[in-house]
Fold each of these.
Amino acid sequence: MKLINLEESDFDAMNKRYRTNFINCLSGFKSLALAGTINNDGVTNLAPVSSVIHVGANPPLMGMLMRPNTVPRHTLKNILETGMWTLNHVSEDFYQQAHQSSARFDKEVSEFTALGIVEEYHSSKAPYVQKAKIKIGLSLEEKFDIQSNGTHFLVGRVTELILPEDIIADDGFIDLEAAGTLTVSGLDSYHKTNKLERLPYAKVSNL
C-alpha cells in the first residue's frame, strides 16, 4: 500500500468539494441521527446530523455541532427559538429518505411531509421520526460559538427517551446493532455495523 504525506498547503490546494469530502472522512465512522425540530409557527423540520457526541451521564447531556449559519440553518434557528429538539437513530429502512432531508428545502416546507416521513409526538413538543427505533428528546442547555470557523456547539439535556426494552442489557448497555442503527462516513456513505465483542472494564490488573 502506497502512503502519501500531506501538509496544510496540500489541503489549501484541494478543490473545495474534494477537500470537504476528504477532511470529513478523517474522523472515522460517525454517529447518524435525524434532528427533528419545530418553529413557533408550527412548521416542522428534519435534518441529518453526524456530529453528535456524549457530553455527560449525570446529568445526561449530549452535544451537537452545527455548521455556520452563513446560509439559512432551519434546525439551528428552530432550536434557538424553541429550546428543544429530537434525535432519531437512522436505520436501513429509511436511510435514503434521511439522506434526502439534507436538501435545501424552503423554510415553509416540512421535510417530514416532502419526504413522506411520519412524525410523532411524546412529551417533547419537537417531532420524532415514527420509524426510528431509538428516539431522544433534548432541551437546550448551552450554546458555544466556535470562533475558528463559525460553527456552533449545542449542549442538550436528555429529557425523554423512547427505545425497545429488549435491546437494553442488565448493565445498561444499549445494543445499537440490534436496533439496526446505521453509521456514516464522510458526507454520504452509510454503513451497517458488525460487533466484534464487549471487553471487560480496563484495569492494570487485567494485563
Amino acid sequence: MKSVILAAGVSRRLYPLTYEMPKCLMKVGDKAILDRQLKTLQSSNISEVIIVVGYYRELIVDYVKSHYNDLNVKFVINHHYFETNTAYSLRLCNDFINNEPFILMNADVLYPKEVLTRVIDSNYNTVLAVDIKPCGREEVKVVEGEGNRIVAIGKELIEDNSLGEFIGVAKFSKNISSKFMNSLDQLISSGGKSDYFEAAIHPLMSEHDIYYEDISDLPCIEIDFVEDLEKAQKLVKSDWFK
C-alpha cells in the first residue's frame, strides 16, 4: 500500500520556530516528527511513500535521502505552498496514487505505531483515526452516524455535536480513491485552493461509507502551536513510543 505525507505548509502559527526549518523536521524528544512517521511506515511494510513538499523543500528532500535511502520515497512539489493548503497538495499526488488505496497523513502529527496499525488493520476499507473527546474551534471535528460511520467532518462543525477530532491519519480504499480526487478537483476549481483536504471528504459521505477507528486511548497530537509542541514533548515519553 502507498502512503502520502503532506509536508508543504509554512507553519506560520509556530513562528519563530519555523522561520528557518519546516515543521516536520522539528524534534520531539530525540527524533524529528518526520522521522517518527517514516520509521512507523517502514515497520508497517508500506511499499511506497509520497511526500508533498513546499516550504524549505530542499531541507526535507536532503534529510530523507540521507537518512532513508532504503525507503521508496517520491517527492511531489507544491510550488504554491504560501497560498494553498492540504487539498491542493493532495490533488498534486493524483498521478502517483493512480486510483489505488492509500494511507494519508499530515506531516505534523505525533502518534505511536499502534495508531497506524489500527488504521491499516481496520475492518473498514476507508477509515479515519479519531480521538474521541470534547473539541475546540481549531480541531477538525467529526460527527458520528450509526455503526462507526462518519456523517460530517470539518473545523466549522458545532463543537457540542462532535464525536471528537480527526487527527490527520487515514486509510482510503481503491473504490473511494478516484472519487476523492474528483472531489478535490471540484473543490479546487470552485475556489478552494486554500481549503483543507477534509472539505473534499465531506461530499463523499452521502454516497460512500467512511468510518472511524477510536484512538483516544493513545498519545496523539497534531502540532500547530507552541503549546502543542510542549505537550508533544511530554507525550513522547510514554511507553507507546519506546
Amino acid sequence: MAEDPYKLLGVPPDATPEAIKAAYRKLARKHHPDLNPGKPEAEDRFKAISAANELLSDPERRARFDRGEIDAGGQETPPSGASYRRYADEQAGARYGQRPDAETFEDLFADIFEARRRAETAPRRGADDFYRLGVPFLHAVQGATEPLTLPDGRVLKVNIPPGIVTGQVLRLRGQGGPGIRGGQAGDALIEVDVAEPKRWRREGWDLHMDLPVSLQEAVLGGAVLVPTPSGRLRVTLPAGSDTGRRIRLRGKGVAAHGARAAGDLFLTLRVVIGPSDAALDEFLRGWMPEHPSDPRAGLEGAA
C-alpha cells in the first residue's frame, strides 16, 4: 500500500500548492538518483516522492484523495462508513488552485545541473602528497631539522620534534599538490622512520644503556665518561658496584618538548674482567675476603 503522500512530502493536509511544490523540490534534490549513484534506495524514494507530488499537484485528484475516493496510489476505493475524507466539504478542492505546470521538473533538473556546473567550476584544493623520511635515532631523541628532497627537486626542511617515533606523520601545510582553479595547495604528509639505536634502548621518554666497567672501577668506584644523547658526561661510580647495578641520570633521556619534561637515562653496570693479568691472578690466589659470601646462595631448589 502506497504511503500517505502528505507524510511522504512532510506537509500537512491543508498545505498550499506552493508549500507542496517547495517540499517536493527539496526532497527531490536530496534523493535524485543522479546525486546518489549506487544507492537504489534513493531511487525508490525519489519515485515515491514524485508519485506523491503528482497526486497532490492535481487539484481534482487531491480533492478525491482527501474525500477518500481514491487511495495514495490513485486507485478507486470502495464506499465505506462516515469518515473525514468521505464527508469533507465538496468545494474544499478549489482551495488548492491550479495544477503547477511542467516547470516543476524543468526547475528541478535545472537546479541539479546548476549544482553540477558549480561543482565542476569551483576552486578545488590540491591533493595531499605522501612521503617517508628516515630519521637518525639521536635526532628523534633530541629534535632536529631534516631535509626532504621532493620529486620535483624542491627541498623541504622538516622539523623533527623531540620524542617522535616510527610511524608518526608530520604535516607540512601547502606543500602538496597544486590547487585547481585557484584552490589552495594540498599538504605534504611525511611518515617518519626512526633508525634503530646501537647503544641505547628507548622506553617511553627514558633511555637505557649497558655500561661496561672494569673490575677496578667496580671495586674502587670513581669517575668514568659516559656517552649520552647530549654529549659525554662524567659520572662517579659508587665503590663496590656489582654487575646489574643501575644508575639514574635525570633529564638525560628524550629531550623535553612543550610542557613535557625530559626523560632520564638509566645506566646498567656490566663488570668486564678483561684479559688475564698475572698480578691480579697472583693476588686473588692469596686473597681471603674479610666477610666471605656465596654469590650463588639461593640457587638450590630455584625453578
Amino acid sequence: MVPFFALDLDTYLSFASLSHHRDDLFAWRNENYALTALIFVLAYVIIVTLSIPGGVWLTVAGGFLFGTPIGTLLSVCGASLGAIAVFLAARFALGEYLQARAGPATRRMEAGFREDAFNYLLILRLIPLFPFWLVNLVPAFLGVPLRTYALATVIGIIPGSFVYCGIGNGLGSVFESDQTPDLGVIFEPAVLLPIIGLAVLSLLPIAYKRYKHGKR
C-alpha cells in the first residue's frame, strides 16, 4: 500500500484519467485483448488483497474497456479472487494481525454469521453495511467454510458490479459531450431498489428460522 500511494498511483483511479488515456487504453485492448483482460483481473486481485480503496473505479474501468457483460465478469472474478486470498490469509497465515485490525467489528457480525453464514454474507455483499475489506476478514475468524464464503461473495457482488460496469460502458458518450460522470446513479431508486430487494430475499431464511425458533 505504501508504494501505491507514495507513487501517486491512486491518481489513475479517476474519471479524468480514463478520459485522458482513453485512446491509448482502447488501442492496447484491441491489440492485446486477452492480456488486457488478464492484467485487469490481476490488478483487481492486488487492490482487493491489499485493501486499497479503488475497487469501484476498477469496476467502472472494466465496463469502460470491455463493455457491461464482460466487464462485470472480469470484475467479479478479480474481486472474488482477491476476497478469497484475504480470507485464506486471515485463516492460515496472518490471522492474529488481521483479527487485531478488524477490532470489535468481529463481535458485531458474529451473531449473523452464526445464525446463517451464507445469507448473512450475501446481505453484506449486496448492501455494504461494513467495509468490503472487513467483510473479507471476519468470516475467516468465525469459521465460515471457504465454499460458503466464496459462493456468497460471487453472487453478492454481481448486482453492484453490473451497475458500475454499466456506468463505465456509457462513459464514452459522456466524455464526448463534456459532461461529468456521476457514481451516485447507484442510489437512484431504479437501481437501488432491486438490490435492496435481493437483500430482503436473503433475509427471509434467517427470519423464518427465528420465527420457528420463537414458536417452540
